[in-house]
Amino acid sequence: MDGAGGSTGATGGGGAGTAAPEPPVLEMVMPMDGVLHVEWSTPTPCDEIEGERKDPMHDYEVAFTVAGTKTSRMDADAFEDLEYTYRLRCKVGEVYSEYSNEMSGNPTDEE
Predict the structure, then answer these.
(1) What residues contact 79, with CB distance under 8 A and at least 6 apart?
(2) How many CB atoms lie within 10 A of CB 54?
(3) Is 80 helix (H, G, I), strand (E, B) or coil?
(4) Beta carbons of 35 and 66 less than 8 angstroms apart
(5) What is the CA radius of gyration of the chain?
(6) In angstroms, what CA-CA distances link 75 with 11, 65, 83, 88, 94?
(7) Which of 72, 22, 66 lies closest to 44, judged by CA?
(8) What share of the chain is helix, strand, coil (3-state, %, to 5)?
(9) Distance between CA atoms of 7 and 2, rounded to whole angstroms?
(10) pLDDT (tens digit, 9 = 90+) per residue, 28-84?
(11) pTM score > 0.85 for this model?
């Protein structure tokens, strides 16, 4: 706690004093047992993690919501021979973070 870095300030005039949490960081999307295993880290505490998934025929939609203490999820609905892309966001109270980085994987690409 050296205080270095300073403040980044508000980014868009969103709330009444409640700062948005930092987004999760996607670490891995890996085929495992015919579905995709998604792993992430959270730089700040979250109440919930919301995961969105898209594929070549569908835009992003919520695929899962897990407790903020979780850092991985098996996505049993990602089982077709398609490239699935994920992004996450952190929820604290009623405030959501920006979206995380995106990562993709195909559940049929197991070695």
Answers:
(1) 34, 35, 107
(2) 18
(3) coil
(4) no
(5) 16
(6) 32, 11, 13, 13, 25
(7) 22
(8) 0, 45, 55
(9) 14
(10) 999 999 999 999 999 999 999 999 999 999 999 999 999 999 999 999 999 999 999
(11) no
